[in-house]
Amino acid sequence: MKQDLRSYKTEKAIKSSFFNLLRKESFNNISVINIVRLAEVGRPTFYNHYIDKYDLLNNIIKDYGDIFRTLISQRFKEKDIDKTLYQVADFLIANKKEINLLKTIDAPNIIHEFNVILESEFKKSIPNNLNKLPIDYVKELYISISMVFINHALNTDEINEDVIESLNQIQRDLNFNSDD
């Protein structure tokens, strides 16, 4: 179902106001009243879209998570992951202010969501007979390396091509796409 323009603009104003408030104060100190005042919408309008500020937060995390899941899913379909890693890096860098703000919130947390997505996509995409290494070891290694890459992207303005190549080399060494 397609969202109408007025509803889209309202949600955008609410989310923008939420991030503006999060830049100034902790999540615990932000109230729905603060959000609606800054967004210039009424409380009933807010509640037409979200149950409370936690629902808003979960919605935002889900939005970022959906994009991240699409990119990670695509990553496992590629033998050479350069293009996909650049897309992931571009997504993270373009949204780093918001994602870094979301990282400051204890629960639910965007980093936890990214971890869950990485594990889920890994389990769906990697064969159990991967190399001679135990699959749980490789999964933890993959998630750890991915999180280092994510944190690097969130703390930089561009990704060095040597970083991408090193990740590609790790993939080849672990034989993630073994149809050779």
Automatic annotation (TrEMBL):
DNA-binding residues: 31-50
Identification of the protein by name: TetR/AcrR family transcriptional regulator
Keyword set, alphabetical order: DNA-binding
Record-annotated HTH tetR-type domain positions: 8-68
The keyword DNA-binding belongs to this UniProt entry's keyword annotation: yes
Gene3D superfamilies named among the record's database cross-references: Tetracycline Repressor, domain 2 (1.10.357.10)
